[in-house]
């Protein structure tokens, strides 16, 4: 299977559980932006953690779900780069960005049973593809309760994460990539 798009942003979380909704909030905000075009705009980093731009970014797909599922291995296999986005309870503020490698975790058929590294391992096993993969953990503070709102600190951290990833991928505020929601 050859890649169909350059970057897949796969956000996870529950928007009805306060700061656990950081992933879906990130996905919604990115969907309101798009890849710029032009001679100097629309350039993306080959290494997401790098600060330099090197190639055009023609395609970004944004998906979100409550948790990762084994069915998403097909989506991951069609990407050159995957950025998993989730709320982080204990990580550094405003966010952390780290490389993730595939692992051969046993597949469990339960909700919340698939990790990013496990999904990457399954992708490699089933589709023979190993895209570059990153985990973006956005620091949240309020997780014990219900409500479709983010804490003030989480909103600030979300803004910082959006600005960072948008800059690295060449995504502007005014355009819109194709996106879809998994439910």
Secondary-structure map:
Elements: E1 5-12, H1 22-31, E2 34-35, E3 43-44, E4 55-56, E5 60-65, H2 73-77, E6 79-88, E7 95-99, H3 116-127, E8 132-139, H4 152-169, E9 171-172, E10 179-181
Helix pairs in contact: 1-4
Give a description of the structure.
It is a single chain. The radius of gyration is 16 Å and the shape is globular. The two termini are 25 Å apart. The protein contains 4 helices and 10 strands; from the N terminus they run βαββββαββαβαββ. By secondary structure, the protein is of the alpha/beta class. The chain has helices at residues 22-31, 73-77, 116-127, 152-169, and strands at residues 5-12, 34-35, 43-44, 55-56, 60-65, 79-88, 95-99, 132-139, 171-172, 179-181. The chain has a single domain, classed as HybD-like (Rossmann fold), CATH 3.40.50.1450. α1 (22-31) packs across α4. The strands form 3 sheets. It has a 6-stranded mixed sheet. 25% of the residues lie in helices and 26% in strands.
Task: Give a quick precis of the structure.
The chain is 25% helix and 26% strand. It is an alpha/beta fold and 183 residues long. It has a 6-stranded mixed sheet.
In total, how many beta strands? 10
Structural class: alpha/beta
User: In what range is the share of β-strand residues?
Assistant: 25-35%
CATH fold-type name: Rossmann fold
Provide the descriptors you would attach to this structure in a database record.
26% strand; single chain; Rossmann fold; six-stranded mixed β-sheet; 10 strands; disordered C terminus; 183 residues; alpha/beta; two-stranded antiparallel sheet
């Amino acid at each position: 299977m050859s890649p169909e798009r350059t970057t897949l942003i796969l956000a996870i979380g529950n928007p009805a559980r306060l700061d656990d909704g950081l992933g879906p909030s990130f996905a919604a905000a990115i969907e309101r932006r798009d890849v710029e075009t032009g001679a100097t705009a629309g350039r993306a980093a080959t290494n997401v953690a790098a600060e330099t731009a090197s190639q055009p970014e023609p395609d970004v797909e944004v998906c979100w779900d409550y948790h990762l599922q084994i069915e998403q291995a097909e989506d991951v296999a069609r990407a050159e780069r995957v950025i998993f986005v989730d709320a982080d309870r204990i990580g550094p503020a405003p966010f952390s960005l780290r490389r993730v490698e595939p692992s051969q975790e046993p597949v469990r058929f339960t909700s919340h049973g698939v990790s990013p590294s496990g999904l990457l391992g399954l992708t490699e096993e089933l589709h023979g593809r190993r895209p570059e993969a990153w985990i973006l953990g956005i620091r949240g503070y309020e997780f014990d309760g219900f409500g479709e709102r983010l804490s003030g600190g989480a909103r600030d951290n979300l803004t910082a994460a959006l600005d960072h990833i948008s800059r690295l991928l060449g995504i502007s505020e005014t355009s819109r990539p194709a996106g879809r929601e998994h439910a």
